[in-house]
Amino acid sequence: MLGRTGEQWRAEVLAQGIVDEEMLDSPRVLDFVVSRLRANCLLAARYRPSAERVSCPLLAIGGDADALAPPELLARWAAHTSRDFLSKTYSGGHFYYRDQLPSVCREVLAAAGSGAARRTERPS
């Protein structure tokens, strides 16, 4: 992915539904989006998994049609915790949450539990 041309990146941005096609007519918008995607790909390419596990529950959420992070990839997060693991998939691709944000937020809050909700309500 890192060796893609500008046109290949443009096609990827459109395929993933990151921004509307009209927005990509602006070279500034295309450069902004592509520079972040390249950085994300470089980060992923350099990632080396650790054998260490966290001691907190994990929730992995994704879209059932996500080609970048399919449900079977989400399930791998279970190996990174010594506690409970929950995986939840929603209908959609990589940006599934755009159309389901209230449901996704409820899922995260439910997984975090009432203690997390109380902590967010306290002033710092």
In summary, what is this structure?
This protein is mostly helical.
Tell me what the structure shows.
The protein is mainly α. The chain folds into two domains: 6-46; 58-121, no CATH class. 45% of the residues lie in helices and 10% in strands. The protein has four helices and two strands, in the order H-H-E-H-E-H. Strands 1-2 form a two-stranded parallel sheet. The longest helix has 21 residues, at 101-121. The protein is globular, with a radius of gyration of 18 Å. Residues 114-124 have low confidence and may be disordered. Belongs to the thioesterase family. Residues 9-108 form the Thioesterase domain. This is Thioesterase domain-containing protein. InterPro entries: AB_hydrolase_fold, TEII, Thioesterase.
